[in-house]
Amino acid sequence: MKPSASQLLGHGLLTLLVVSAALAAYDRLVLRPALIIGVVDVAEVYRAKEAEFTQILTKASSEEDRQKALFMARTFAQRLPVALEELPRECGCLVVLKAAVAGPTPNTVDLTATLRRKVTTP
């Protein structure tokens, strides 16, 4: 039994619809997130924290103040790697050092402020 022209047209339209939906889903769920690159300036965050700790230590008048500054430095050293691991999951993108990127693109997102917030908030 031969399929009629209207059946062939219906099957063709259904195939076209399924393929279009699959391509649209691939574009939204796989391709576009892979094109986004998050950049982070770890050196800037580190220098700012280092300056803050140095200032606290130079103004420290007691052993308690020094211990507080050392505790802050230890906390920062523990939070930094954890925060760097969380960034790619949160933005759903590849995260690289800002120094590794030659120039900004429309798909580049600066995550330095996010990293700074993560290492300063408890």
Summarize the structure.
This protein has 122 residues and is mainly α.
Annotated CATH homologous superfamily of the largest domain: Skp domain
How many beta strands in the DSSP annotation? 3
Q: What percent of residues adopt helix (DSSP H or I)?
A: over 70%
User: How much of the polypeptide forms β-strand, as a percent range?
Assistant: 5-15%
The number of helical segments is 4
Give the domain tally. Answer: 2
Low-confidence stretches: none
- What would you say the CATH architecture of the largest domain is? 2-Layer Sandwich
Mean pLDDT: 87
| Helix and strand element order | HEHHEEH
What does this structure look like?
- With 122 residues, the chain is mostly helical.
- The protein has 2 domains: 1-34; 36-120, Protein Binding, DinI Protein, Chain A.
- It has 4 helices and 3 strands; from the N terminus they run αβααββα.
- Strands 2-1-3 form a 3-stranded parallel sheet.
- Helix 2 (42-59) packs antiparallel against helix 3 (63-91) and helix 3 (63-91) packs across helix 4 (112-120).
- The termini are far apart.
